[in-house]
Amino acid sequence: MNTRNYADILGARVDLVNTRESLERIRSFIVNQQSAHVITLNAEIVYQAQNDPELLKIINGADLVTPDGIGIVWAGRRLGYPFEERVSGIDLLYLICEQAARENWKIYLLGAAPGIADEAACQLAQKYPGINICGTHNGYFPAEQQQALIEEIKGLQPDVLFVALGAPGQEYWINKFRHVLAVPVAIGVGGSFDVIAGIKSRAPEWMIKANLEWLYRLLKEPSRFKRQLALPKFVLLILRRSLNNN
Ligand code: UDP
């Protein structure tokens, strides 16, 4: 029986979870040795999925989809769903690592430019003494190396696989290999390794609190402008949907 409580945002199921509940679910995936796919979903990806049925299917087939980004939280509330807060990939990554050090979960970091996942692993080891990061690999591997990479991850048997290949590429990748890998939790975390390794900065706390993280990223990386054009279109779709519902 499906007991999940979720919002329907333009056809995408987003779990009505806060950060604490997301962590509890992730813990249960590890305890039950599931091959769970966790997605931290933002508005850009939901917009993209409107014209990409496969992506929508992947989102709706994931075991946990958290509301990442103020766009999703706003849309959910507008459509009448009681979202409490954003649950972002990087926040979950830190919290999972904190718990991993306590519970001895093994972590694998896949993604970002060569050297970045290693540096992120060093930073995480300093922040969470005792954490077991069993392996890392950069995200720019040629197709012919993919099988060896899969075998390496399978052999190391991590409990949590963080995949930082950018959205939605990382969601496609996890969906394709999750059952072969048999890792209890695989979660896409976008540009998180770059932030942890210190080559990119996250928005200041006041901007995060004011829900302006998207603006910070746009100012820092103007090349994201084209991608972020999806946001006003997403807002229009939600406004139209909410007016039709009334
Ligand atoms: N990346 C990668 N392999 C690729 C493409 C991207 O490892 O083939 C990495 C890239 O180096 C960066 C992350 O994926 O660390 C994408 O970061 P971004 O901030 O764009 O994440 P998003 O906003 O897409 O979640």
Task: Give me some keywords for this one.
alpha/beta, 6-stranded parallel β-sheet, 246 residues, binds uridine-5'-diphosphate, 16% strand
Q: What does this entry look like structurally?
A:
By secondary structure, the protein is of the alpha/beta class. Helix 1 packs across helix 5. Strand 7, helix 8 and strand 8 form a beta-alpha-beta unit. It has one domain. Helices cover 52% and strands 16% of the residues. The chain has helices spanning 19-31, 43-49, 53-61, 70-78, 89-103, 116-127, 146-156, 169-181, 192-197, 205-209, 213-220, 225-228, 230-245; strands at 6-9, 12-15, 36-41, 64-67, 106-111, 132-137, 160-164, 185-188. It has a six-stranded parallel sheet with strand order 4-3-8-7-5-6, sandwiched between helices. The site of uridine-5'-diphosphate has 13 residues, from helix 9.
Strand content: 15-25%
Oligomerization status of the protein chains:
single chain
Note the overall shape.
Answer: globular
Strand order of the largest sheet: 4-3-8-7-5-6
In whole angstroms, the N-to-C terminal distance is 31 Å
Which cofactor or ligand species appear?
uridine-5'-diphosphate
**How many separate structural domains?**
1
**Main sheet?**
6 strands, parallel
Radius of gyration: 18 Å
Which structural class matches the secondary elements?
alpha/beta
User: How many beta-strand runs?
Assistant: 8
Uncertain segments are none
Specify the helix fraction band: 40-55%
Helix and strand arrangement:
Layout lengths: L5 E4 L2 E4 L3 H13 L4 E6 L1 H7 L3 H9 L2 E4 L2 H9 L10 H15 L2 E6 L4 H12 L4 E6 L8 H11 L3 E5 L4 H13 L3 E4 L3 H6 L7 H5 L3 H8 L4 H4 L1 H16 L1
Parallel strand pairs: 3-4, 3-8, 5-6, 5-7, 7-8
Antiparallel strand pairs: 1-2
Helix pairs in contact: 1-5, 2-13
